[in-house]
Amino acid sequence: MSIYDTPIATLDGTPGGLDAAKGKVTLLVNVASKCGLTPQYTGLEELQTKFGGDAFTVLGVPCNQFGAQEPGTPEEIQTFCSTTYGVTFPMTEKIEVNGDARHALYQQLVTTADAEGRDGDIQWNFEKFLVGKDGNVVARFAPMVDPLAPEVVSAIETATKA
After folding, report:
1. Is the residue at 159 inside a domain?
2. Looking at 2, 6, 10, 35, which residue is catalytic?
3. Distance (Å, rounded) from C-alpha 146 to C-alpha 152?
4. What is the domain extent for residue 116?
5. What pLDDT digit, counting tens, does each position of 57-68 carry?
């Protein structure tokens, strides 16, 4: 099953949170507003600006499971992201990415290993999954991997040309 068929709402609660990504290469990232890695929003927005359009999108997935670093309401998250980092890419509702209440989207994603061979639970905020147009995971990047790292940019370029 394509991850794009997984039901999830947008940040404002509207059904179809993956509709904007369907048929595109998508960089899915679990995000948080009060994390040491939050400045990665800048790089994520740069990727959206450079590659966004009909072939690619970044998709932010707010999660409050790591140090309670995403405590805000949907409105607070949206305001923070747009005013602090100029975020234009779509965001889903806040979900859990680990544990018994792990969202179905992440149940599919965590089976993919990163470059070090690590799969399973999400390590921290800003773990990244590159998903192909067909809805299958192409690559996984650890939280500390910068969104503009050569391996991320190269993977996006390769996937969007496929």
Report:
1. no
2. 35
3. 8
4. 3-149
5. 999 999 999 999
The reported pTM is 0.96
Query: Which pLDDT value is given to residue 1?
Result: 72
Question: Is 35 noted as a catalytic residue in this protein?
Answer: yes
Q: What letter would DSSP give residue 76? A: H
133 assigned to some structural domain = yes
Residue at 102 is within a domain: yes
Q: Which residues contact 86 (CB under 8 A, 6 or more apart)?
A: 45
How many domains would you assign to the chain? 1
CATH number of the CATH domain containing 43 = 3.40.30.10
Counting other chains too, the contacts that 112-116 makes at CB distance below 8 Å and 24 or more residues apart are 112/137, 112/139, 112/140, 113/140, 114/139, 114/140, 114/141, 114/142, 115/139, 115/140, 115/141, 115/142, 115/151, 116/142
Domain membership of residue 93 (yes or no) is: yes
